[in-house]
Amino acid sequence: MPLDGSLQRLRREGHIVVVGASLAGLRAAETLREEGFSGTLTMIGDEPQEPYDRPPLSKQVLLGKVPADHTALPRRRAIDAQWRLGTAATGLDLHAKRVHLSDGSSVEYDRLLITTGVRARPWPNELEADLDGVFVLRTVDDATRLHHRLKAGPRRVLVIGAGFTGSEIASACREQQLPVTVAERGAAPLVGALGAVVGEVAAELQREHGVDLRCGVQVTGLEGDQAGRLRCAHLSDGSTVEADIAVVSLGATRNTEWLAGSGLGAGPRGIACDAGCRAFDVRGIVTDDVFVAGDVARSPHPLFGYQFLSLEHWGNAVAQAEVAAHNMINSSADRRPHVWTPSFWSAQFGVNIKSVGVPPMGEEIIVTQGSLSDRRFTAVYGYRGRVIAAVTFDQAKWLDFYQRQIEQAAPFPPPYPSVDRRPDGMRPVPAGFPDPSLPSHGPTVTLSGHSPADRRVSFTPMRA
Amino acid sequence: MRLVVDLNRCQGYAQCAFLAPDVFTMHGDEALMYDPGPDDAQREHVLRAAEACPVKAITVEAADAAASAQARAGASYAA
């Protein structure tokens, strides 16, 4: 389709501003240039580092196999951008089309892409969070500091929250023979993301590897010594854990505060956008010039009842950034929908865990290949008689098949025979997801209803 | 040099671990662990590994982007 005059001008000499200089922001910038955008490109990021990859931080970097500063992301191409790193966006004026920055300046845009992502949810008690030895793990600086402390040989590490990040941290500690206690509010590790059946396997893995795993408990308080160093943690079952390091792994918070009052449909669950990555305003009207991608976005997905879906997934950041960038510089008839099937991976305790679809939607689960007791299996989740998700432990090769099953809404339980079907995989059982309104580490994929202006908060931790 | 592996794609064929063992290693039976910022001396091995990957999961920094890295490193970010 031929471009109209204004679109041609935008592509030739327009100004595109990307707020959020991590994986999604970088891939979007590359796509813009790849597709012929030759105007001015400004990249704004609150961290001083150029875009880097986060998954290695809880694995290679904590293990000391790779220095934290080795994680800068490779560029697919030169992007010829103006970089404003170490500068946070503090406000957005939709009328003036301006982004306000922490250094007091502002930047005007023709098109804006928001990829501000998430940050680690901090320990709710600020005094306790400030104790020496209390960490979160999200940024390269977090990883550098935590690795440094792990190397010094702490007496015991307490991991608060057994989601993927917490479990990977516990795994990295055990691999270095460090004593670890994991405290998880749910019935098992990973229970929010994969349900109790798979969570039980994760629990056995942790215990076999020497983790002191405590489930069904909450940490109610962290106590320091007179010098302000963490000494111990108090648990809701009345017990005390002596530890000099605590890593708070209670999931993530979306970086949307800077948009408060801007009129954009942004809240604690993210920024609502349409399937073409255009942001909604609070009235539910889609904007023409503000786009969203990555962890901070919530977008409707046809495979999951068109509910808004928030994904804290590496692959989603890449795929959505590419779609957003394409749509930013194309006319409506040439725009593409973001209909990526959720996928993620985690490596912990020597096992490769991968998943496709939306497991927390699953009502039932069936082990279609391998067996839970072997720690090598493929399990499929069913929702209202169709396949909605699958997870593998060291069986990644089968996932492509199940991804197609999900995309075709194939019937559940699967009627076909499969290789390596065991007796315990003949019947589906309840998948065992906890009530999503209960606070926990949370799943990394969340269905968040149909309201583009949703402002409900989903996490209320118990106070000490 | 810089690289990244799309671990959604990776299926643990381990071709990279044979071709560039100082950069890619298997961690357990299926999980891949790698150095995203290996020494430039590894370039030949890494390129061979990326070429051999059956699912094309390895992205190595593009030559034109790498060439501008020098300028990038010296550039003022407060522009």
UniProtKB/TrEMBL annotation, chain A:
InterPro entries: FAD-oxidoreductase/Apoptosis (IPR050446), FAD/NAD-bd_sf (IPR036188), FAD/NAD-binding_dom (IPR023753), FAD/NAD-linked_Rdtase_dimer_sf (IPR016156), Reductase_C (IPR028202). Pfam families: Pyr_redox_2, Reductase_C. GO terms for cellular component: cytoplasm. Its EC number is 1.18.1.-. Residues 412-464 are annotated as: Disordered. GO terms for molecular function: oxidoreductase activity, acting on NAD(P)H. Residues 15-321 form the FAD/NAD(P)-binding domain. Gene3D superfamilies: 3.30.390.30, FAD/NAD(P)-binding domain (3.50.50.60). Its cofactor is FAD. Signal peptide: none annotated. Residues 344-414 form the Reductase C-terminal domain. Keywords: FAD, Flavoprotein, Oxidoreductase. PANTHER family: APOPTOSIS-INDUCING FACTOR 1 (PTHR43557), RIESKE DOMAIN-CONTAINING PROTEIN-RELATED (PTHR43557:SF2). This is Rhodocoxin reductase. It comes from Streptomyces jeddahensis. The gene is thcD_2.
UniProtKB/TrEMBL annotation, chain B:
SUPFAM superfamilies: 4Fe-4S ferredoxins (SSF54862). Pfam families: Fer4_13. GO terms for molecular function: 3 iron, 4 sulfur cluster binding; electron transfer activity; iron ion binding. Keywords: 3Fe-4S, Electron transport, Iron, Iron-sulfur, Metal-binding, Transport. Transmembrane segments: none annotated. Its cofactor is [3Fe-4S] cluster. Ferredoxins are iron-sulfur proteins that transfer electrons in a wide variety of metabolic reactions. PANTHER family: FERREDOXIN (PTHR36923:SF3). This is Ferredoxin. The gene is subB_1.
